[in-house]
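<instruction>
Derive structure tokens from the sequence
<entry> Chain with its tokenised backbone below:
===
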Amino acid sequence: MIDAFEKWKSGLAKTSRTAFGQLANLLGATEITRETWDDLEALLIQADVGIETTGEVLDSLRLVVRTTA
């Protein structure tokens, strides 16, 4: 039982590191394209942020980008 839990915990940690590494790469981009938004949306959903929260985050970020551009 403990081995299964440790494998599950290790898998979640790996997924988290991968997701946040990809997020760091996206945030380092010098240009925001439609593909950037799509990649960010997919990344947030894969990171189990949730669809509703992902939409709210993207809406907020788009507003910030529009007001600073």
About this structure: The chain has three helices and no strands. The first helix runs from residue 2 to 27.
